[in-house]
Amino acid sequence: MNMTRCRRILWVVLLLAGLGGARLWRARQPERPTSAERVRQTRLMMGTVVHLDVCPGGISSDQVDHAYQEVWRRMEEIAWRMNVFDAKSDVTALNQSGGRPMTVRPDLYAVLREAGRMWRLTGKAFDITVEPLILLWRRQARENRWPSPEEVQRVKRHVGMEKVALLEGNRVRLVDPETRLDLGGIAKGYAIDEAARIFRRYGVTNFFIDAGGDIYVGGLNCRGERWHIGIRDPADPKGVVAIVYLSDQAVTTSGNYERFYEINGRRVSHIIDPVTGYPQKEIASATVIAPTAIVADALSTALTVQGARRGLALIDRLGEGYAALMIRKSAKGRAQRLESQGLGRYGVVK
């Protein structure tokens, strides 16, 4: 379960209903919007392209500009502080703490606490301590050699959220000094939720946030309709498997159809199951609708690991406000579409 990169392979197609027709995200250039109201800003961040669209309505342009400035500042701060690849990040410092208690900032502590909650909720399928297994499989791919069962088990001993102790006063201790955290499967969702919070604080209620396909939509689009989101077909870069209609909700997708390891001529998923230590095989993509981006982010990753039966059962248990669409690969290589019970509430078009 590579939670650093799961989100990067989420490919969602935004259908700009009422804003100039439809476009395929990352499949063609954006079309010029026909609505004079819509304001868009775009930046490269978190290893992807981030789009922020606002429908200002009666809000002044100065107020919108101030909201954008604070949103970008906050997202950039989260992007570097919670990035395992940044040598000066808070996460890197924690990974190098050698098992000693370390005081972290309140937002990082809150993200770690939420990661623990999602670990328990998903039966350990979502696990930010999976980094040692990711490094193992990456190294084996470079060496073009399958790891032995003994190697997998030896590395797996360092994986598990029970090895992350959250202490009083925002202190964190990695009980096992060899445990490594990777927030790639949850930090982007947190950054998106922070952006939504800031927009609303400035009175901006109708907005669209797209961080490389991890999406949160606030209010309505510039025509006063729910936002229309197209979910990419993992077998067809130019196709969609469904269109959903959302307001004040997040939608994210994880999958293994864009990134993989190749060992001895065989492709294997880059998404590693932290429980077994091996790449998952069943799910081509898992899309989750949830009230917040941080939860949708974690759940879509977990569903690719859990598989269709357990994953959909989990979403159904969560009830209203949650839904999922999964594409499962059959033994003959055919794709099978599976839906949670609540998906129909979002006006799904197939």
Give an overview of the whole structure.
This protein is an alpha+beta fold and 350 residues long. Helices cover 30% and strands 26% of the residues. It is built from eight helices and 16 strands. It has helices spanning 61-81, 90-95, 106-121, 131-143, 149-156, 187-201, 293-306, 308-318, and strands at 12-15, 39-45, 48-54, 102-103, 164-167, 171-174, 207-211, 214-218, 227-233, 236-246, 249-255, 260-263, 266-269, 283-290, 323-329, 335-339. An eight-stranded antiparallel sheet has the order 2-3-7-8-11-14-15-16. Strands 1-9-10 form a three-stranded antiparallel sheet, with no helix packed on it. A three-stranded antiparallel sheet has the order 4-6-5, with helices on one face. Helix 1 (61-81) packs antiparallel against helix 6 (187-201), helix 6 runs antiparallel to helix 7 and helix 7 (293-306) packs antiparallel against helix 8. It is globular. The model is unreliable at 1-36 (pLDDT under 50).
